[in-house]
Amino acid sequence: MKNCVQCSSVHSSQQKLSVRERLLIPRQKMPEQPPEVRTHNFDEVNLGFSEQLAILEARRCLLCKNPKCVEGCPVMVNVPRFISYIAEGNFEAAAESLFADNALPAITGRVCPQETQCEKTCVRANKGEPVAIGHLERFVADWVLQKRTRGLNISAEKSGKKVAVVGSGPAGLTAAGELLRLGHSVTVFEALHEPGGVLVYGIPEFRLPKSIVRAEVERLKQAGVKIECNVVIGRTYTLDELRNSFDAVFIGNGAGLPVFLDIPGENLKGVYSANEYLTRVNLMGAYAFPKFDTPVLTGKSVAVIGGGNVAMDAARTAKRLGAESSTIVYRRTKKEMPARLEEIHHAEEEGIKFEFLAAPIEIIGNNEKWVKALKCQKMKLGEPDASGRCRPIPIEGSEYELPCEIVIVAVGTKANPLLTSTCPGLKLDKRGNIIVDQNGMTSIPGVFAGGDIVRGAATVILAMGDGKRAAMAIDQYLRD
Q: Thinking of the domain 260-411, which architecture would CATH place it in?
């Protein structure tokens, strides 16, 4: 593709920019919907860089000889290379570079916590703001989706080997793409009616549009990945049956079993796990009931328990569904919240309330067993615990009630035993997660695993890193 005139002028001057000139360029702000508008729709909040903004932001890169940003990326994207191509206006080359390292850049460019990974290690972060690596990654991926010109680069000869992938979330899709690229035949088995896993049922439309996930899935399918939905491994087929039909198996079915607090009142009407709440809205169209058959309870006041991205997603979703008051209840302070800074910032802009240093101890119902309040106890911070964050300590006599009609519990998930319980030869840890070796292989030869089913609930990019590493190990296993 021919570059535009502006891109060509940038190309001629890019390598001539001095470090001082690059340092003078401020970080470019991602355009976004105004808060007062976006709280009334489910459209994406961030609107993406224009070509001009992307080029300007890319020119901030210092082209380090020893780029730490690559080491900070779980899938080892060659960050300086694709960014240097953007700075030159050569988006085709940027795409070629990016897609060689990352199977799902349109997704990671939106939901990956770059601020704690690649951008954290950016040299520019030492004095000022890092290069907006995530925004640039999204720009390139969206440019490709708009042009509809790129599929996977399948250059390897066919191996004749067949690999089954359990789960079509970030770990499974990444493993499938890498295995196909390496020449193997891949079939993905998905339990739900639409592929994407947590990408479609757990992350709201305003953060990750379903059209983006579908486009990435379609790209894999066009390249040759087979996807079978409504197949529950552990029920439809056993793991042993897969092992007998395929040369290798990768398990990436996530950790989708909700965790509750085990406090009085959790069985009242109006109490949701964040998993169920977000699945109803994201994957089953509850936001458009009765146009879609799946309903979801709404209320004027909603309390969300937790401090991670899932809690932010639930609180912001409740706001969009009409809640006048949507409150995050978190037992530590804002500083300790595990949610992305961008998500906290967007939540604050949208009027989400925060009840810090508060631990729920009971959900209170009315005579008809509907939620009417969340009883909390005030906390103070003590010494750091195993997580490195200060341990919350209850303050005696500080109980109070937070009026609400809906309570959403977003305190994490754990491994679903549906698959693992049907295969006693699969070794598990005390939390029910699958134990793997350094190559991602389980206790059963030829069966590999990665993502949340191994490490517990974590980020999309960490699951993708597991999928990529496991694909390399599976390839070696099959060829040996």
A: 3-Layer(bba) Sandwich (3.50)
